[in-house]
Each structure stands twice: as C-alpha cells, then as structure tokens.
Amino acid sequence: MTTNLYTAHFGFRERPFSLSPDPDFLFWSKAHGRAMAVLEYGMVTRAPLTVVTGEVGTGKTTLVQALLRKVDPDVTLGLISNAQGDRGDLLRWVLNALDVQMPANSDYVSLFQHFQNFVISEYAANRHVVLIIDEAQNLGAEMLEELRMLTNINSGKDELLQIILVGQPELRQLITRPELRQFAQRVSTTYHIDPFDLRETRDYVQHRLLVAGGQGHEISPAAVRMIHEEAGGIPRMINKLCDLALVYAATSESAQAGLPTIRELFKDGLVLKPADEPLFLTNRIDTHKKAAE
C-alpha cells in the first residue's frame, strides 16, 4: 500500500493527517485562536516574557510556525527547540539561534557581553530581538533563571529583548515554584491550550479532509466519536487514528472509514496508548505586571 494509492483512493492531493506540523492545515479552534492572540499580543506589546503551554500533541509547534509567518521585517528572530544543558549552555543556544558567532572557548562573561552588545546594536538599528523557545519545559529552573537575567538588558520605556516560551504543562508548574517567583513576575501573559471537545474534533477532522482535497465525510461521525474518545481530544493522536483509519478503509476498498474500521485497527494493535492519562490543566489567561527592579 503506497501513499499514492492511499491518496488516489479518496481523491486527496496529500495526506490529510500527517503527524508533521503544517501551518497550512492549522485548525483555528477557540483555544488555538486565543493562544495565537496571546502570542501576537506578546509580539506587539514587546512583552519581556510570554508563556504558552499545552499537552503533548496539542499543536503548539504548529502555532509557532504560524507565528513565524507573521513576524515583522524589523524583528531579529531566534528560534530554539529542545535546548538543554548547564549554566552558560543557554547563552550558546541563544547566540547560535541568532546566528552570532563566538569562539568555542569563550567564557560566560564574554558570551553575555557579546549577547548584550548584539541586542543593543540591533536596537540602535531600529530592530528588536525576539527569542522563541519551543519545548521550554526542558530548560529547568537554573536555565529559566538565566533567561530572566537576560531580560535585565531591557531598560527604560523600550524593550530590547522579548522571550516567548512554548512548552508542556510541566513548564507552567516549574514557573510557579517559589524559587522562580522573580521569573514569574516578569511573565506578562500565560495561556494553556486545552484538548478538543467532541464538536471541535468533528470540525477538525472535516477541516483537514477538505484542505487535503477530500469531501469532508471520508470518516463517519460514529468513527470520529470513537477516535475522539480514544485520543482524548489531542490533535496528534486524532491525526494518527484518522490516518490509520483511512489506510484500513482504502485497503478494503471502502468509500468511508466507519466504526468497524476503527475497532479493527485497535483489535490489530496498531495504536499504542500511554499508561498514564495526560495531565489536562484548566485553561486560563494570566496577566502580571513586570517586577520593578
């Protein structure tokens, strides 16, 4: 069974449920619309720290890619994914993301001074620097505190540097720890992306089918309901189940993936489910005043 046969069977231009983030397929659920509004708010107001969280597979990286398409030409942007390490490593990640070259043996003071000079020179050229850090839950408390120290470059009415953190729910839990209260005070806005409800899942599935060139009903309503329940409303899991359902439907030469199709792929053990239920946090927007230094 090839990808061409799969798409040809249903008349798709491309696979509607690829697991790779693709802004062209971005579905604007209520939560995703608000998350994007928060990200844009942070960009427009030059907020020093903006935080967006969500469970694994809720579309955070896709939102980041959609945001990158909207960045103004006067922004110097650095994107960091999955940064890890000890003190000083973060600065190397940052400088590398901004395409700023430094000798490999540079000490921390030299790295910081070089970064500060770069940010100030960008400001003098009527530009401002934005760092977007994806999978930010991997930073840990020490690296988050180091990020806060980087925001000390900001002074007066103008913000020279802004940082956007995107990560899993653990990031929010980390930020609220007592030892990071100074960091939390610098956060202007936070938002958590909740999983889809059943109606959103139905709209999401139909949206992706139509974007791929289908009719929108290649998966039956009953099948979508079961997919929603099994996926817990998580878009990535929905994609995986829908993709497999279409493969099974195509191999049996069915015009639609129905409830029996979903039951069959589970019976065949094609989908691995995590042992623990995902941690869903109540959705809310928090706004804080910047800490006075």
Give a short synopsis of this structure:
The chain has 293 residues and is of the alpha/beta class.
Please describe the structure with a list of short key phrases separated by commas or semicolons:
293 residues; alpha/beta; Rossmann fold; Helicase, Ruva Protein, domain 3; 2 domains; six-stranded mixed sheet; 12 helices; 6 strands; 46% helix; 13% strand; elongated
Describe the structure.
Pfam families: AAA_22. It comes from Celeribacter arenosi. This is AAA family ATPase. With 293 residues, the protein is an alpha/beta fold. The chain has 2 domains: 30-194, P-loop containing nucleotide triphosphate hydrolases (Rossmann fold, 3-Layer(aba) Sandwich); 196-267, Orthogonal Bundle (Helicase, Ruva Protein, domain 3), CATH 1.10.8. The chain is 46% helix and 13% strand. It has helices spanning 3-10, 30-45, 60-68, 89-97, 108-124, 140-150, 169-175, 181-186, 198-211, 221-231, 235-251, 259-267; strands spanning 49-54, 75-81, 128-134, 161-167, 187-193, 285-287. The protein has a 6-stranded mixed sheet, with helices on both faces. The radius of gyration is 22 Å and the shape is elongated.
